[in-house]
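Entry under discussion copied across for reference:
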Amino acid sequence: MKRFTILFLFVFFMITTSSAEHIKFMGVPVGGNVAAFKDSLKAKGFIYKKCFKTLYSFEGIFANEFVAVEVLASPKTKQVCKIIVYFPQKDTWKGLKSDYFRKKNLYKEKYPLDKDFEFFSSPYDEGDGYEMRAVSLGKCNFASFYYATGGHIMIQIDEKQRIKITYEDRENIKISQSELDQKALEGECKINCVRL
């Protein structure tokens, strides 16, 4: 009985501990209030640029490149839920594709790859000479998804001809969605109440 109790407590502790873990960005847990996270980024040399509602913009050095970083927080409790890193634009398909695969392989060394896909949507194909046009039109579908402790990471080529890396915290994205849903319901109630 004593062994069973100890085993039960150990399993309970492991479940509780693992569910409370947050994904990390540059060694900083993506958890807690956005003000503390902003201070952590500033301490790492990032420059705060601006804020729009729950989106906070920074610039700084990440992976030895000058990048733009967006920090998204939940609307009510201001819990950090997502980090988006934008790398510099590339001028050529060869440079953009090379950068994508370099970053993909770099992340694959640290995180387990969940899934990936790399293709162009019709009427574009790789090798047709119109790859960068396809990228700017959203017809380039290059993305890799990784498992990370506390969340997941996605690397992709975006329409602005650059690499975009997204860190999403599993727990805080749920909090953010719940707060957004509640805000939508409250807004609907206000509209209905005004009409009565």
Q: What stands out?
A: The beta strands are 24-25, 28-29, 47-52, 55-62, 65-73, 80-86, 113-120, 140-148, 151-158, 162-169. Confidence is low (pLDDT under 50) at residues 4-18, 191-196.
